[in-house]
Each structure stands twice: as C-alpha cells, then as structure tokens.
Amino acid sequence: MRYDVETVAEYLEALEDDWRREKLLALRGLVLERAPELEEGIRYGMLSYEDAKGQVFGLNAQKGYVGLYVGDATKVDPGGELLRDLDRGKGCIRFKRRVDVEETAIDEFIAKAARLRREGEDIGC
C-alpha cells in the first residue's frame, strides 16, 4: 500500500488501528533504537531510514503484512540465522499477523545492517 503522506506524523496517523500498526510501531522502535544515526523520513509513500549515502531501510504496512525493506538481506545475513522462520524475499522481510516481532532476531539484523553500512559495506540490491 502506498500512503499519500509527506511527513512521518502523517504516515503514522494514516495507519489503520489494527495488528499492522502494532507490528509497524514495534519495528520502527527497533530501527530507531538499533540504528539511531539514521534519519527517519518519508520516501515512496513509506517510512524511510537514511544516512548521507541514501536509504538503508524502508518500512511500510501492506494489506497482509508489514514490510521491512533492506536492499539485499543476504548481504547482511548470508546464512539466514537472523531471519530464520521469517517470510522474506531478496530485499523484503515480511511480518504477517502471526509473527511476534519480539520473538525474532530482527533487532540483531537491524543492528548488523546499520553497522555494515557505517563500515562502508554495500548492503543494497
């Protein structure tokens, strides 16, 4: 889903008050905590977390999941240990209704992605 918003506050206000909002807010909190050097904003109608080189993460509530977008997840987690049991594509990690964010290692994944980016590693597509 693409939200027609210009600010983070507008995006958060536009979210429906359901399980997707809960998951998105949990993931947002982890990104803000584990990658505080990234600036939060809006890009492509979703939450965006960027540094001077550009976007590192995107975060968006879709119809059936909340997506955390991260370029190429295999560059951050080559063995898949941190993303085990999560539905994912090359650059999207999907959090569906039944997934408890706190029972995953996504916080470690976010921290590792941010660290790799700070160290100049390419984690993009």
Question: How are the secondary structure elements laid out?
Answer:
Blueprint lengths: L7 H7 L4 H16 L4 E5 L2 E6 L2 E8 L4 E4 L3 H4 L10 E2 L3 E4 L10 H13 L7
Antiparallel strand pairs: 1-2, 2-3, 3-4, 4-6, 5-6
Helix pairs in contact: 2-4
Cα distance, first to last residue? 21 Å
Q: Please give the radius of gyration in angstroms.
A: 13 Å
Q: In terms of structural class, how would the helical and strand content be classed?
A: alpha+beta
- Order of SSEs, N→C? HHEEEEHEEH
CATH architecture: Alpha-Beta Complex
Please tally the β strands and state the result. Answer: 6
Overall geometry comes to globular
Number of helical regions: 4
Mean pLDDT: 94
Helix content: 25-40%
CATH topology: Aspartate Aminotransferase, domain 1
- Extract low-pLDDT stretches: none
User: Which percent range describes the beta-strand content?
Assistant: 15-25%
Question: If strands are numbered along the chain, what order do they take across the biggest sheet?
Answer: 1-2-3-4-6-5
Please indicate the count of domains: 1
